[in-house]
Amino acid sequence: MLPQAGGFYLDGIRESCMRTLILIVSGLVLLAVLLWLARPAYRSRAALFFVLVWLGCSAINLGTGLSRGYSLQEELLVHAFLFGVPALAALAAWWRWRPRAAP
Fold first, then answer.
1. What percent of the chain has a predicted confidence (pLDDT) above 90?
2. What is the pTM of this model?
């Protein structure tokens, strides 16, 4: 049970963490679907395209957070993970399916 005095603050932290987790998982699912739909020859391009799209989605989410009263300092740390985890997964996918020069 949460203490009465700090309950609202702790509930806000839990809600924020859950929202961040949901957005990260959504990004990973979106990447997986995009790679699944792409032809094998175009999967590296699809992964790079995802990074651009996810950057736009993260920027929109950043603007939403700032408009709701969060400071830029608070939002930047959250968005480092929010953008970074799916983007790193996309870059790993790009590395996996990147075009290789013929020997």
1. 58
2. 0.80
